[in-house]
Amino acid sequence: MAGSLQQQRGLDYDRPMSPTPEPRVGLDVTQAVKRRGRGIARYIQEVVAAQPAGALPTELFVRGHRWFRRGLLSDLAPDLPRRWLPNSARLGDRGLALFHSFGNHLPRSAPCPLSFTVHDVRALDEPAGYEGKERLQRNIAQADGIVCLTQHGRGRLLHHYPELDSAVVEVIPHGVDHARFHPRPEAETRAAARSLGIEAPFLLQLGSWFPHKNLELALEAWARSRAAREGIELVFAGGGASASHQRRLEDLAAALGGPGRVHWIEHVPGEALPTLLAGAVALLQPSRYEGFALPLLEAMASGVPGVVSAASCLPEVSAGLWPVAGTDDPEAFAAGIDRVALDSEARAAAIDGGIEHAAAFTWERSARAHDDFFRRVIASRAG
Questions:
Q1: Tens digits of per-residue pLDDT, 23-78?
Q2: Is the domain covering 2-175+362-382 a CATH 3.40.50.2000 domain?
Q3: Quick one: what percent of the chain has pLDDT higher than 90?
């Protein structure tokens, strides 16, 4: 891609580019316009930054009012042109060979092929009380190509839309930033934990505290575990729960003997997160639904074992290396905790296997796969 970037240097990003004979791809990066963020924002930032040499020329699009905050992306691939999409329902003729949305937003009208990333199909699997079903259905009907994050996600999509089996539907997993997530010295991880008020060994659950994240299972399993009786505490890092749900979680923690031993951390600074994760005795992922669960791979790369629920893609991403328990089975989840926390042989196997497994996942590999996908979608329409 170096040649195309050199050709684009010095352009005014807010002005339309002159037409070029090379196929150009437009990428909707709106959901990365945030001061901080993991999830979709992290995915967008990593894939765009890791575009390989020789990738298709790319333009970054920002929808609606977030255009006026595009400075938050100033460090992201600064050589790539930025474009404003004032009307998110209509793309207009931009001379693009393909327009791809990294989130669940596609224009309803476009003169070029469209593709998007399906982060999960929860809106189809569990439509009650979950927003976004109609938009997801509309996008699926419009799309010439779809990226799924896991084989489980692809399977669920084809379950609902079996006619897509002959379409360009690719599985492209996330990557791991191995420069940030790797085993660290104990002195370093202890200092990071102490800076957040954590003195004892701890289990960690990362991510939002929404109901589907099933923090209740982590609490009940921890309370039943031998690990808890031997002084291992429990840390939830993420936040975002409603006030009423937060109270219910705190009341449950108190009833289970958690005051002073269960820690609630609303936000961990980005630079501190890898060190905190590397210092955990184990990562807990008891969710009822996940699209990918990147913290699993980041924990593995950091030399940390874990326990997952049997829900959605979690057994696939953990690759049989971690104990798996039902979403409503605290006894089995507690047994999994004790296995990876206290059984030295099982723990070592989970750590060694996890480091090897995570090594295969990089953002560079993901970015190359995205470029290959874009080329296949363009070719499928041209043919």
A1: 899 999 999 998 766 789 999 999 999 999 999 999 999 999 999 999 999 999 99
A2: yes
A3: 84
Q: Which residues contact 152 (CB under 8 A, 6 or more apart)?
A: 312, 313, 316
- The two domains 2-175+362-382 and 186-358 share their CATH topology (first three levels equal): yes
Closest C-alpha among 209, 212, 192, 190 to residue 201: 190
The helix (run of H) or strand (run of E) holding residue 145 is: strand 145-148
Measured CA to CA, the distance from residue 310 to residue 210 in angstroms comes to: 18
pLDDT confidence bin for 128, thresholds 50/70/90: confident
Q: Give 267-334 as a DSSP string.
A: ---TTTHHHHHHT-SEEEE--S--S--HHHHHHHHTT--EEEESSTTHHHHHTTSS-EE-TT-HHHHH
Domain ranges of the chain: 2-175+362-382, 186-358
The total number of residues shown for the chain amounts to 383
Q: CA–CA distance from 227 to each of 177, 210, 320, 341 (Å)?
A: 30, 25, 22, 7
pLDDT in tens, 327-353: 999 999 999 999 999 999 999 999 999
20 pLDDT band (50/70/90 cuts)? very low
Taking the C-alpha atoms of residue 41 and residue 121, their distance in angstroms, rounded to an integer, is 18
* CATH classification (class only), 186-358: alpha beta
Residue 7, SS3?
Answer: helix
> What is the per-residue pLDDT for 129?
64
DSSP 86: S
